[in-house]
Amino acid sequence: MSTIGIIGAGAIGSAFAKALARKGLEAIIANSRGPDSLKDLARDLGSSITPGTREQAAAQDIVLVAVNWSKLPAALSGLPDFGGRIVIDANNPIEAPLFKPAELHGRTSSEVFADLVPGARVVKAFNHLPAHLISDDPQAEGGRRVLFFAGDDAHAKSAVSGLIEHIGFFGIDLGLLEGGGGLAQIPGGSLSVLNLVKFG
């Protein structure tokens, strides 16, 4: 199984960590304030989630990034080239308290994000649902909750799809980052905040 890192311990990062912990999957979680600030969260999540530095989280095989949009450049600056490793873009170009869409100059948020993670194979995922639907039991409604994903690298998408399935969700491939990533992007994506359940 691939090693997993999480950069960002807010709502989405913590929800993803909880989903991993529920299946006993190990991950290193990091934030801007350092490992000591995450001890209580890690204790609540369980022994499989370890607080670490940003660099430790970024060094894993699969790295999920979930940070406020305006803070992404600072959160990712100075990290080494990702060298073909997989980075999950769980971000949206909007944030509290104003919820005003960021100016993307005609690009999708994942295209902008990809520029911040040189060498990464970027997959958009875990961004289109409220955090509690990621941390809650994905089979609570009698089927499997759907998670969309998109990316330009088939092998990276296959790995993320496998992870989605492993933690109990049903993954749907939306295609390439430019088109598929835009469909699930908040705001404006036609599939954003759409809570679907796959039965059978």
Automatic annotation (TrEMBL):
Q: Which residues cross the membrane?
A: none
What's the name of the protein? Pyrroline-5-carboxylate reductase catalytic N-terminal domain-containing protein
Question: Keywords for this entry?
Answer: Oxidoreductase
The record's InterPro entries line, in alphabetical order, gives:
NAD(P)-bd_dom_sf (IPR036291), P5C_Rdtase_cat_N (IPR028939), STEAP_metalloreductase (IPR051267)
Q: Which domain of life is it from?
A: Bacteria
| Domain (Pyrroline-5-carboxylate reductase catalytic N-terminal) ranges | 3-93
